[in-house]
Amino acid sequence: METTSVAPMELSARIVTLELAETFVISRGATETEDVAQVELRHGAVSGFGEAAPVDYHGETAESALAYLEEHASVLGDDPFALDEIGARLPPREWAARAAIDAALHDLQGKLVELPVWRLLGLRRAGPPTSWTIWLGDPDDMARRAAKVKDFSRLKLKLGGRDGLDVERVRAVRGVTEVPLQVDVNEYWSFDEARDSLPRLAELGVEYCEQPLPEGDPDGPRLKAASPIPIYVDEDCHHLGDVARCAERAHGINIKLAKSGGIREATRMAYAARALGLGVMLGCMIESGLGISAAAQIASLCDHVDLDGNLLLAEDPWPGVEFVEGVQLPSQEPGLGVRTGARHRDGHVTTASRDAHVRPG
Length: 361
Ligand code: MG
Hints:
The protein has helices spanning about 60-70, 85-90, 95-115, 115-120, 140-145, 165-175, 190-205, 220-225, 245-250, 255-260, 265-275, 290-295; strands at about 10-25, 30-45, 45-50, 130-135, 155-160, 180-185, 205-210, 230-235, 250-255, 280, 305, 320-325, 325-330. It is an alpha/beta fold. It has an 8-stranded parallel β-sheet with strand order 4-5-6-7-8-9-10-11. A 3-stranded antiparallel β-sheet has the order 1-2-3, sandwiched between helices. The chain has a two-stranded antiparallel ribbon with strand order 12-13. It starts with 9 loop residues before the first strand and ends in a 32-residue tail after the last strand. Magnesium ion binds near residues 184, 234 and 254.
């Protein structure tokens, strides 16, 4: 087993545009494509890969992630197992970029010892089934889209229309499907709207409500006390240091690798949440299979999983995560277990080999 090498790890990174199968609409806006930064870390003859899906509401972009990756390529050292030392050398910002480095290091580790990352971490392979996201739209439109869903055993409805119709949206979807429903308000309710809506969502059998209030809203603890269904926070919870504060305002936290900075921090957050009696959800951004594969490695630590990012794409350029009976299963191959080389609709082939050091055009 080769754990160290004389030469420092070499990093190359590029921006990739992911194309969505259909337009994605949430309370903050709509999008048809998403740019991510992808990184390759070379350690001798072995390469590890990772993806940075920037958290736009924190001012991160694919360009800022790429700049961070290139700026800090020289501090990675020569030991992909030295996660704490490498983490300490990286400035605490650009969390999606840090998550890409963390994923590439885990991918390298797994490939070097010939184990999938979930095995390396001592975890079970399978987590709970993933939810499928129903974008924000008119109640009828959301119901129409929900009625077409076949392969998913739970739906996550994006709410926050600010038109008084959010409960109607859920009622319309409830009318066409029996599967468990979850809702994500993305910070768009006031305390009064939340206090009014949550009991009605409870009657419709909604399992939990994600981020009803704006990040840091002083009414958070009061809403937690009043809510008949669990509240999960997403925009309120990024790193380990946020988890204890979230216990005052929520019954659970939504962990995303792009917010936390990677698998290592996300794992710490999951255990901290358990110590505080909180539920744990694992979410994602719009990501290819490269990003989703990193999250899928730790899905078994979670109560709820929302890892549909790669399934929302017109085509996943990094296959390897298996979608089996609603569960996003990480591969049994070493490392993250994904491979590139998918053929795009325009005929070009994605490569991430040594000569793919392509700067964004
Ligand atoms: Mg959310």
